[in-house]
Design a protein that fits this description.
single chain, about 425 residues, alpha+beta, TATA-Binding Protein, six-stranded antiparallel sheet, five-stranded mixed sheet, about 30% helix, globular
């Protein structure tokens, strides 16, 4: 508490002003926490003096209350590049991050703006692909900063550059060097001779405990092979708030678990009105997690820097809307860096159309990744290879002739043809 209070005074957090009749007074309170590492071991005690959010009035005391956060694919891409270049990866923590902001309004995102302005003065360029990524390039010296609110990943091409950046940051802000990256956003990072293993076992165990399923019988797969659940799968579930809480928690677990991405997407379709059948599907995922709790994703020092993607789709799979679900995964060299499972926004008149929309989704993601890698000064020299199991969709991606069955497809989907014609994307067949 003393350390927290001294930081408040040092940063000039408040000044006393006369109370006016139109002021809404927000009381302050102390919050005490035990902070744990990603492996579950106790790290330190934390005390925070905060304003009681329950007494705030929206529109008077606050408007937007979010901070920009880094995309998961950006984190995996930066880590992959650091491994390929044999750069050290450090983790920094900012003490009292929000207090470092200089307020120009009553409720700002001041910390993010202050940090952005300062690292720009150090020579970092703000990424256009991801607003929480900062890139430093001077001659042969390269460094990346990934910012997630007040957690920072720093990787640099040399120890002297890394030390220089950390000295500047510590002089401007109150920084804590946590050493080599070991945990980030509740994700455990294990270093091996050939790469990094990302795992959320502690977080997964917390989810199982909240669901009272720590001792359940494990399932071998996250979803069964029966028909998809409809919107009215059995009686209405008695506790929809619990269902939403569990589904939201599982969404964050997909950060390192692409194997549950599709199953989680299916239950999230019913968060607005869950039924007993949907809860049964959610429990199936939890049982699968119980049996695979130590699973995660491995990033290795890959010799290749090519982008290779796989995409697939089911046609009219949703029993209620008859919309299709498409999914993809993208590899940078040997490392899986991006994946998605999503219901398509419109109806498809054929399986070829559904697959073609899936190809368009993964090409869009690949274009973003190519631009990101270009900003990181690690451009992809070869065309992105996209594998699809539908021959008709492959013909659609390269054939400019409009047939009777395809002339209704929106023009924005046909941007795939443009990238194929440019030679930036090549679409090939792969067996189911």
């Amino acid at each position: 508490m003393t350390e927290e209070f001294r930081a408040l005074i040092k940063n000039g957090t408040w000044e006393l002003v006369p109370r006016t009749p139109d002021m809404n007074i927000i009381r302050s309170m102390w919050i005490f926490k035990h902070k744990f590492r990603a492996n579950g071991l106790f790290e330190r005690y934390k005390a925070r003096l905060v304003g009681d959010g329950r007494s705030k009035q929206v529109g008077i005391d606050c408007t937007e209350t979010f901070s920009p956060v880094v995309k998961p694919a950006t984190i995996r891409t930066v880590l992959s590049l650091a491994l390929q270049n044999s750069w050290s990866i450090h983790q920094l923590d900012v003490k009292n991050a929000f207090l470092h902001g200089t307020l120009s309004e009553t409720a700002p995102r001041a910390w993010y703006q202050r940090f952005t302005e300062y690292v720009s003065r150090l020579g970092f360029i703000h990424s256009k692909c991801d607003h929480s990524l900062f890139i430093y390039k001077h001659g042969t010296d390269t460094a990346y900063i990934v910012l997630y609110v007040d957690d920072i990943i720093l990787t640099a091409s040399s120890k002297s550059l890394k030390d220089m950046i950390m000295r500047h940051l510590d002089a401007e802000f109150s920084m804590m060097d946590l050493g080599q990256l070991s945990s980030f956003l509740g994700i455990s990072v294990t270093h091996t001779p050939t790469g990094l293993f990302l795992n959320q076992a502690t977080y997964a165990r917390d989810i199982l405990e909240r669901a009272d399923m720590l001792h359940c019988k494990p399932a071998k797969t996250p979803v069964d092979t029966k028909s998809k659940l409809s919107a009215r799968a059995g009686p209405v579930f008695h506790d929809p708030s619990f269902f939403r809480s569990m589904a939201g928690a599982l969404q964050y677990l997909t950060f390192t678990r692409p194997d549950i991405s599709y199953a989680v997407q299916q239950i999230c379709l019913h968060m607005h009105a869950p039924h007993d059948g949907h809860m049964g599907a959610l429990k199936r995922i939890l049982r699968y997690i119980h049996g695979t709790i130590d699973h995660g994703i491995y990033l290795s020092k890959s010799p290749s820097r090519s982008l290779v993607a796989y995409t697939d789709a089911d046609w009219a799979g949703c029993p209620d809307t008859r919309r299709s679900t498409s999914g993809y995964c993208v590899y940078l060299g040997d490392n899986l860096i991006s994946w998605s499972s999503k219901r398509q926004p419109t109806l498809s008149r054929s399986s070829a159309e559904a697959e073609y929309r899936g190809v368009a989704n993964v090409v869009s993601e690949s274009c973003w990744l190519r631009n990101l890698l270009l900003e990181l000064h690690q451009p992809v020299r070869k065309a992105t290879i996209v594998y699809c199991d539908n021959v008709s969709a492959i013909f659609l991606s390269s054939n400019p002739v409009q047939h009777q069955r395809t002339k209704h497809i929106e023009l924005d989907i046909h941007f795939v043809r443009e990238y194929v014609a440019r030679g930036q994307v090549r679409v090939f067949h792969v067996p189911s």
